[in-house]
Design goal:
6-stranded antiparallel barrel; 9% helix; Thrombin, subunit H; single chain; 6 strands; 53% strand; mainly beta
């Protein structure tokens, strides 16, 4: 785990998004994109976990990435598991926290 205040991006994750491309007849076809980026795993506090549970959400892990690397992707592959992004928190220090739930 890395410290939220002074994060160390010492892990690698895959940010999985979707772009649309035109096929031969001009139809917009979704295409999955994968961007490998550095990240750090951060702890989910008891309060964050409890508040999420009140809304029926169960975050399993949280990571921090450089804000320049994150472009609204809805899925993340981290340590061999694909997660959905439940919540994102862009910070003022050029990092973004992503709270994840297993797909």
């Amino acid at each position: 785990m890395t410290d939220k205040k002074n994060p160390a991006l010492n892990n690698i994750c895959m940010l999985i998004g979707r772009n649309f491309i035109s096929d031969a007849v001009g139809n917009q076809v979704p295409q999955e994109t994968q961007d490998e980026v550095f990240c750090g795993e951060i702890a989910i506090t008891e309060k964050e976990f409890y508040d999420a549970a009140q809304s029926g959400i169960r975050p399993e892990t949280a990571i921090i990435v450089n804000s320049m690397d994150y472009d609204g992707q809805e899925k993340v592959s981290f340590q061999g598991i694909v997660y959905s992004v439940l919540r994102r928190y862009p910070r003022v220090d050029e990092f973004t926290e992503l709270y994840l739930q297993r797909k």
